[in-house]
Write a structure and sequence with these properties.
The complex is a heterodimer of chains A (about 300) and B (about 260). Chain A has a 12-stranded antiparallel beta barrel. Chain A contains 1 helix and 15 strands; from the N terminus they run H-E-E-E-E-E-E-E-E-E-E-E-E-E-E-E. The two termini of chain A are about 30 Å apart. Chain A is about 5% helix and about 65% strand. Chain A is globular. The chains are: A mainly beta (about 300), B mainly alpha (about 260).
Amino acid sequence: MKLTLTFLLSILLAGSCAKMALADQLDIFGSLDPRNDIGMSGKLGVEFTPDFPNETFLVGVEIRGISSADRKTRYFWVSGEAAFNEGVVYQNASHRPDALYMDLNITPVTTDIELARTAGGGHTASAIRIAPFEIKRVLRWGTPVEISVRAFGISKDYEKPLAELTPQLKGFLQVAVDVVGLRYLSQATYDDNPLWPNPIESRYGFDIGALKAKAGISWDFNKTFALRMSVGVNADAADLTQGGRDLSNGLVASADVFTRMEFIFRHVFTQWSLYAEAGERARWEQGESAFTKSYGFIQIGLMGQYR
Amino acid sequence: MNAFVKKTAATALVLASCATGLMSNAYADKDVDYQIGGSVAVEANPEVKDASAIFTHRNIDYKIQGSSDIDIDADESAQIAKDLKEKQPFRAKGIQGKLWFVTAELLGAQMATLAVLSTLPSSSTGWGKGSLQNIIDHAVQGPHFDTDPLYWNFMAHPFVGSEYYLLARNRNANWWQSLIYSAAMSAFWEYVTEGFFERPSVQDLVITPVAGAVLGELRYQAKEALIDPKTGKADRTWKKVLIVILDPINALSNL
């Protein structure tokens, strides 16, 4: 019991200290050296959007641990993302100023990682995540808190050279799917003014799942420098019941589509990535017009990994 | 007797030599194990002191010679790929001069389109009134976020970006030259051609070349996989049809 509590507390502590920031949740197997017990990554960046606030600072850390005898099983995996709006004072749905955007992911246990190296520097890897847990607050959507606990998730990661004539050119596909769970949504009825949302109303119900996928190509200039370009999608959906006077029961879904370019520098156990990402975010709720709201975004940042 | 002994001895010697030669060849052939995957890799039996082998990969004969332990790593794979390219005489070296002619054609077509569009009412084009002064004004104002539909930003623009990319890639530019070319053409469209009417789009400036390079390189590699590496041409009708589907504009320009 004591051990379990210590373990759970350590997860929460690690998450809190890390300020809940996500580096690149999908870049999981290819970058984690199985000889290390712990992998860490951090991100510093700026996001620009046409919506208020127009500029937000992104800070984040991701921590992954391997603690089994065969060094294959991860016993914890915490990742998250926080967005700070420097110099901007605004209010959340409870009328408290300076509320942060946040996206925190915790995976208590990951099953054995099946990793196979292939000719030419490629690899295939897969694992199953047990009870992945996500907390989000996105005030642009008018959602001060959104909590999802899902039963399990599957992660797949493929990378292989595209052709024998260009072995330095590799194609990759990374997919993570989390399925079936419960979701709680504390939602302000949205009235096009994120500064003054209406009072919060709670909704809860069946979480259908979440998908994160990214595919693209990477070019290795040599063992140190590489360029990686990809297109990807993040999406989740839930069927929520209850709700207040303005919120009908039904599906709630959000998605973003993005294009990403990374310039990568590798040195021993570290990897640095200067990246630019452009995309579109959208939120759709049944009962209202399709894609209730959407906006474009662009991120520029630096990501570091110790693996 | 002597003659008989000499003939027999000579015959035995020849047979023994042949047998030894065959055995040594057979031994070498037997113990060499080929592993050819996405890239070329060969592993030889460590007991073989001097292995040599010839294998055929994608219709090209390739000879490997080495010591007891041939283990080709990524650097050697790159060297093999380079050698492999040299065995394909149809591959020209350096960017083809035709690329600049095609670029001039494309920019000319853009200007002609612009001239036609500027005569149409703005209700039919979706653009405001265009003017040359707009190009400067919009460049000074800088890029902004557009509100175009998702299919426009993430399907139409990447497709156009991949066409820019393939224009260069098909004319012997390598991947990073093609990427720069695609980014330059995309920036020209945003700042000059479209800048005639509206401000450049942040999303388009990033998504068009980056997603275009991903899509373009995949289309290019798919085409490469369909051609015969010895001749540089598709040897089956269905392959030719697939190549036209993968890159119709290049097929048209090669007519």
